[in-house]
Amino acid sequence: MDSDLRNTPGTRFRLWPGLWMPGVILGIGILVSVALANTLARTIADLGLEAYHARHQALVATIAARLQHTPGQQLPASLTSALATDLPEGLQLRIDTLARHTKQAVLELGNVDEPRDSEALRTELTLPGRHWMVTTTPSAGWIDRASNPARWQILTAGAGISVLAALLMLVACRRLAIRNARIRQQQAQLDRDQQQITNLQVEKSVLRHALNDSEARSRDLVRLGGAVIAELDHQGRIGFVSAQIADMLGRAPSDLTDQPFEQLVSEQDRSRFRESLDSARSEEDLTRTDLALIGAEDARPVRVCLRLKTIKDPVHGITGFRLSATPD
C-alpha cells in the first residue's frame, strides 16, 4: 500500500479526505471513557463508604453484644483477640472511655500509616458500667481502594478502543486518499485520451477532405488530359480504364473491365506490348513504347504512345501496372 500511495499522483502534498474523523473518534472516545470511569469510580467509592459504615456498625455491635453481660471497665482478652482478627487491614479501631477525662485509650487496634481523620466514624456506646466512644479511622485511600483501579482500567480500555478505532478510520482515510488519487489519475488519462480522440477526428476530417480533393483533382486531370488512363492487374487484365477509351476506340469502359488489355493491342504489336510488360517488371521504372490500339471491328487502329509503370506493394511485390495511351 505504501508503494501504491507513493506512486499515485496527488497524495504527497494533499491532505487525506476525512482526517477529522479519526480525531473526533479519538477525542469523543477518551471523553466518554473519562466520564464513564469517573462515574463508575464515584459509584464504587460510594459503595466503599457504605461498606466502611457497615464495618463500623458491625464492630460496635460485636463489642456491645460481647460486653452486654460482662461488667468492668476492661475488655476481655478473648474480645480483644476477636476484634484484632476481624479488623481489616487499613482500618484503625480505638475505644475511649467517657466516664473520666483521660487520654489513655481503653483499646487501640490497627496500625495505619496515614490515617484519614476526616473520614473517621464515632459511635457512643453505653453499657452497664461502661460509657465508651468507639472510633474507626480508615487509612488514606482505603475507601477508594477499589474505585481507583476500576477507574484506570476503564480509562485504559476506553483509550485503547478509541485509539484502535481512530487507527482503523485513519487506514480507511488513507485508502480513500489512494482511491481518490487513482480516480484523479484515471480522469486525467481519460481527458488526455478524449483530447487525443478529438485531435484524431480533426486529423481524419482533414485527411478525408484532402483525399476527396486529391480524388477530385485526379478525376479532373484524367478528364482534361487527352490520354487514356488504365490500371491493370499483374496478369494484364483491366481493372480501371478512363472514359477517353470510348472516344478513342469506341468501347465503353464498363465493357472492358476484367478483360486483358492485350486484346486492345493490334496483333502485330502484341509481342511488343508483352516485352513492355516484362521490361516494366524487371526494371521497375517507366517504360515507353509505340503501338496501335484497335477498337470496334469497323474502327481504324489508333497509333498511341504507351507508357507503363508497375504498381508495387511492400508485402506482395508487383501487383499490377498503370498505363497511359496518348494518340500520336
From TrEMBL:
One of its GO terms (biological process) is regulation of DNA-templated transcription. The chain crosses the membrane at residues 20-41, 152-172. It comes from the Bacteria. The keyword Glycosyltransferase does not apply. Keywords: Membrane, Transmembrane, Transmembrane helix. InterPro entries: PAS, PAS-like_dom_sf, PAS_fold. Residues 214-284 form the PAS domain. It holds the Pfam family PAS. NCBIfam families: sensory_box (TIGR00229). This is Putative PAS/PAC sensor protein.
